[in-house]
Structure formats: C-alpha cells, structure tokens
Amino acid sequence: MPELPEVETTRRSFAGRIDSATVVSARLGAALRWPLGCTTESLVGCTVGQTERRGKYLWLPLSRGAAPAGGLLMHLGMSGSLAFREAVSLPPAKHDHFDLITTRGLLRLTDPRRFGAVVWSPAIDQPPAAPLLAKLGAEPFDEALTAEAFHTALQRRRGPVKAALLGGSIVVGAGNIYACEALFAAGIDPRTRCDRVSRPRAARLLASVRATLAQALALGGSTLRDFRDAHGMDGAYQDQSSVYGREGQPCAACATPIRRIVQSQRSTFFCPRCQKR
DNA sequence: CGGGACGCCTGTGAGC
DNA sequence: TGCTCACAGGCGTCCC
C-alpha cells in the first residue's frame, strides 16, 4: 500500500488541515512496531506544525507556545493508512490503533498488520527518530542525486539491482511495486548485479524511478485507498502496472509472458525479453 | 560495509 | 463449511 507516492499523497491530504491545531487528546490502541515513547497525556496542549516527509516516514513537529516539543515520527508499514476527519468523536474500529484528536480534527492511523509506527522523538535529529532516518538514501527528486552519483553508488554493490532499489539506501521511495515497474521501464533485468549496470543504463534507471514515482504521485498515489477496498491488487494500480502482479500475462510490449521470481524474500515481476542483464 | 534470512502482525484467497 | 498454506505494498535486526 504505502510506497513513497502514497505516503506523500497522504501527507498532502492532511498537512494543511492539521497545521496549527492543538492536541486535545490522544489514544493508543494495540501496540504498533515500537512504543510511542511518551504518554498520550503528554501530547495534550501541543501545537502541530507542518508535516514533513522523509522517505516513507512522516514527521509531525510539535510545539508548546514558542518552544519546540519534539514531534511524532509516523510510518505506515505494509498496511497502514492515515485519515484526517473533522468529526472528532468517531469511535475507533478494530484496526484503528492511534488517534490524535485536535482542535481542527481527528488524525487516525488504521493499520491491520501493525507494522506501522508512531514514535515520539524530542527532535527529528535526535533519537529515536534520527537513527531511523540516518540510514535512508537520497530523496528520489533531490537534484543532488545525479545519474553519476547513482551510478557510483551502484558500482559499490554486487547484489541484484532490484534489491538495491528496494533497500532504499541509495534512493528511497520505490517499494516492491514501483521497483519492479521502474526496472521494466528502464529495460533492466532485476537480477542484474549492481556493479554491472553501465553508466547510461544507471542514468536510465534513475530516470525511470523518478518517472514511475512521479506518475503515481500525479495520480494521487494510484494505489492509495481504503485498506478494505485496497486489499489484493485489484484496484486502480493493477490497471496501471506493466509487470507487477501480472505473472503469466503477456507483456504489453512484446507479448512474452511476465515472469515472477523471488528475490530477498520478495516477489519480483519482470519481462524476460524486454528486460536485459 | 554488503547482503540475505528472519520476524513483526493480520487478513485474504486458493486448494482440499 | 472449515482447515491449511502461500502470500501481501516495509523495514529493523541479526548474522555471515
């Protein structure tokens, strides 16, 4: 569900609406990936600032008057979604695990698998937020990430290029779907060793990662919708994808059946003819 | 440092 | 109908 386009779409959908709101109360249901790191009571009275995104993490800065009061680092994991509603008194359903009730509305995390997280941190550059964010690679649309820098980073690795995209230590944002799609768009076999990707092909791959994420972003995060409706791959994204979830179906470009393999415990879909090592 | 396996959880669909 | 199994959009941690 939430890869970078979905997380960014989520951020845009509520950042302006919760900005400057004051926390009235908070509620933590079942435990998430990590402990909240503060009491829900300690959030009361804090003012929410502009929500930022780093990779697939969201950061909600908090303050008390003029004084910073840390912030909440949020992650949607595999099945999480955030909703912001003006109606504050909606009773939580089974998988609604965190509520931030504010003067402007209710920010609610729904996450059936609970791989997501909400963690209070005294600052974004201090633990526990800092060590989590420090491992992240470049933002995909950061101009500082040039084709040359991307190629150089690939040259240092020997594993399959698909795993490098998924790992996010070079560039963040492409999860399993968009990593597969970007590799297809670039015509690169996902099994290709990183250090065997030539400079021009690295440039093409980076451009494809950007184009794939940008397209999804332009569609408002094509795969983002209510989890109950979103389960499975039978939503809008299925129609958009060239390879993801299409094992056995003919490649749109050459009609060769799309293959599914497993790389580092994850499914990879690709066209064995269009994508070359 | 890189790279792969594992585990965290619940839900769903396929097959029997 | 109910069971078991494989699988699911992420990622930190552990080991080699």
Structure description:
- The protein has 277 residues and is α+β, with helices and mostly antiparallel strands.
- It has 2 domains: 4-134, MutM-like, N-terminal (N-terminal domain of MutM-like DNA repair proteins, Alpha-Beta Barrel); 147-270, Helicase, Ruva Protein, domain 3.
- The chain is built from 8 helices and 11 strands.
- The strands form 3 sheets. Strands 2, 3, 4, 5 and 9 form a 5-stranded antiparallel sheet that branches. The protein has a 4-stranded antiparallel sheet with strand order 1-7-8-6, with helices on one face. A two-stranded antiparallel ribbon has the order 10-11.
- It is elongated and about 60 Å long.
- The model is unreliable at 227-233 (pLDDT under 50).
What are the key terms here?
N-terminal domain of MutM-like DNA repair proteins; Helicase, Ruva Protein, domain 3; five-stranded antiparallel sheet; four-stranded antiparallel sheet; 8 helices; DNA-binding
Unreliably modeled segments: 227-233
> In CATH's first tier, which class of the largest domain applies?
Alpha Beta
The shape is: elongated
How does the major sheet shape up? 5 strands, antiparallel
Overall structural class, as computed from helix and strand content, comes to alpha+beta
Q: At CATH's second level, what is the architecture of the largest domain? A: Alpha-Beta Barrel
Helix-strand pattern, N to C?
HEEEEEEEEEHHHHHHHEE
Supply the CATH superfamily name of the largest domain: MutM-like, N-terminal
Q: How many structural domains are formed by the residues? A: 2
The Rg value, from CA coordinates, equals 20 Å
Total number of helices: 8
Number of separate strands: 11
What name does CATH use for the topology of the largest domain?
N-terminal domain of MutM-like DNA repair proteins
Share in β-strands:
15-25%
Spatial gap, N to C terminus: 29 Å
What average pLDDT do the residues reach? Answer: 93
Residues in helices, as a percent range: 25-40%
